[in-house]
Amino acid sequence: MLQNLMFFSVFSLVVLMIFPAYAAVESLSFEKAFYTNEESFIFVGIESVGKKSVAVVIRGPGGDFIDILSAPVSDSDGQFSTFPRPVENVFKIKGTYNATAFTDDQNEKSGITIQLEYDGNKVIERENFVLTLRTVADVTITEGKTLSFSVSVTDSSLDNLIFSLEKNPPSGASINPNTGQFIWTPSASHGNANGILYNFDIVVEKGSQKDSESIIITVKDPVETQPKDEPKEEPKDESKEEPKDESKELGIASFVDQSKDPQSYVDRYNNEPAYKKWFDENFPEYDSIYEAVGLKEVKEIAPFVDPNQDPQYYVDRYNNEPAYKKWFDDKLSRIFLNSQAVGLKEMKGIAPFVDPTQDPQYYVDRYENEPKYKEWFDENFPEYDSIYEAVGLDEQTVVPPKIGECGKGTKLVDGVCTVVDQPKGGGCLIATAAYGSEMAPQVQFLREIRDNKVMSTELGASFMTGFNQFYYSFSPVIADYERENPLFKEAVKLGLTPMLSSLSILSIVDVDSEQEMLGYGIAIIMLNIGMYFVAPAMVLYGIKKAKLVRF
Question: In the beta sheet, which residues pair with residue 116?
Answer without folding.
Answer: 97, 125
